[in-house]
From TrEMBL:
Top-rank lineage group of the source organism: Bacteria
Location of the FAD-binding domain: 4-304
One example GO MF annotation: FAD binding
One Pfam family here: FAD_binding_3
Name this polypeptide is given: 2-polyprenyl-6-methoxyphenol hydroxylase
Alphabetical keyword list: Monooxygenase, Oxidoreductase
Species of origin: Chryseobacterium polytrichastri
Length: 372
């Protein structure tokens, strides 16, 4: 019998694996995919996540594999600044930086540090049964008994659906393309992330490594037209946007709907706990979904320093995490709506330009501060 099983080897499950390993606990991660091969896209690891990776001894590796980003600029279509948040002071205070990195690189570092003996690929959980212990039935015919189970199986979590029988997926009615391209960005863009706000559409880009640039593009769903080319939607944006799009191979672009999980009342049941997107998936507007999955793992680790009873730990875990997670899910949803306005954008931009940088920095600090 397994003492601890984690379902899902995404960023949440892999970070939890690293935390449990640090505590010398016996665990196995089960992943449905035949290889740890996340979507070909970039991701931003904010200072909250990087502080945790520091404690896991992984900060330098992740910084080296990615690109340090000192701030985020929101601009209008012509790249004229609306707001700019420089976090150099916060970086010094928390001794960590934001890092933009290829998802595959990040998951490789997390998985390698755990060791392949702890990760079972090609194990798609089909059914979970609660008897005295949990019985995990996998599509490949394997049946495993486990004392403790973590559901780190993402927004469409099977564990959540079967054990909690709850979870409404909300659709923000925005289409999102993500792409990776070999592109030489001018130097002034090397250590800042940019998000350009237009009418009912947005375009973001950030440098990931020597030549790789990660970008994302969003439009309101009602403007989506299968006959249009991505370039057509953004033809009124600064030419840099069009050059980035033109340089991207079709096979390096993915398209998704923007969704999140309507908050669920409870993340744990007897000897079982959900973490990451399975518990509290958010829209990506604050770049915090994975960072919050990493924080979940960190808090479980902090609680394990003082307690042995997992049921007590799960209860405390939700008490500690709930407020911040709800704030992020709700704020991110609102940012997604404001950033995609179709009318009154000059007024929106005018008022946003009046917000002092210190206010933005305070908001950032609220997010990057760890709870324990
Ligand atoms: C456009 C976009 C941009 C984003 N940008 C950022 C960003 O910059 N920064 C940030 O922090 N977050 C970002 N996010 C959010 C982030 O991607 C997610 O929050 C994060 O991946 C959640 O991690 P997770 O491990 O909880 O779930 P997932 O990444 O969904 O991982 C779940 C894992 O479980 C596996 N699995 C699922 N079902 C089963 C099963 N039945 N059996 C076995 N295995 C199973 C899956 O294959 C997967 O590997 C973004 C999201 C989007 C959509």
């Amino acid at each position: 019998m397994n003492s601890i099983s984690i379902i899902g080897a995404g960023i949440g499950g892999l970070t939890l694996g690293n935390v449990l390993k640090q505590h010398h606990l016996d665990f196995t991660i089960y992943e449905s995919a035949p290889a740890i091969k996340p979507v070909g896209a970039g991701i931003m690891m904010a200072v909250n996540a990087m502080q945790i990776f520091d404690q896991l001894g992984l900060k330098e590796k992740i910084e080296k594999a990615g690109n340090i980003i000192h701030g985020i600029s929101i601009t209008d279509e012509k790249l004229k600044p609306i707001t700019k948040t420089n976090i150099s002071e916060l970086e010094r205070k928390y001794n960590s930086c934001n890092v933009a990195i290829h998802r595959a690189e990040l998951q490789k570092i997390l998985a390698e540090n755990i060791g392949s003996e702890h990760i079972k690929l090609d194990h798609s959980l089909q059914q979970i049964e609660k008897k005295e212990h949990y019985f995990l039935h996998f599509e490949n015919g394997q049946k495993i008994e486990s004392n403790i189970v973590f559901g780190a199986d993402g927004i469409h979590s099977n564990i959540r659906n079967q054990i909690f029988e709850t979870g409404t997926i909300r659709n923000a009615k925005q289409k999102c393309w993500r792409g990776l391209t070999d592109f030489e960005l001018p130097e002034k863009y090397h250590h800042q992330a940019f998000e350009i706000w237009g009418n009912g559409k947005r375009f973001g880009f950030v440098k990931l490594s020597e030549k790789k640039v990660y970008w994302y593009a969003l439009i309101n769903e009602k403007k989506f037209n299968n006959n249009l080319n991505l370039l057509d939607y953004f033809s009124d944006f600064n030419p840099l946007v069009l050059h980035i799009l033109e340089s991207t191979l079709q096979e390096d672009i993915i398209l998704n709907d923007i969704i999140d999980l309507s908050p669920i009342p409870k993340w744990y049941s007897e000897n079982l706990c959900l973490i990451g997107d399975a518990a509290h998936a958010t829209t990506p507007n604050m770049g915090q979904g994975a960072c919050q999955a990493i924080e979940d793992s960190y808090i479980i680790g902090k609680l394990l320093e003082k307690h042995k009873d997992f049921n007590f730990i799960f209860e405390q875990f939700q008490k500690i995490r709930r407020k911040k997670v709800d704030y992020i899910v709700n704020t991110s949803w609102k940012i997604g709506q404001i950033s995609q306005w179709e009318q009154g954008n000059s007024l929106r931009n005018f008022f946003m330009r009046l917000i002092p940088e210190t206010t933005n920095q305070k908001l950032v600090e609220k997010v990057i501060q760890l709870e324990l």
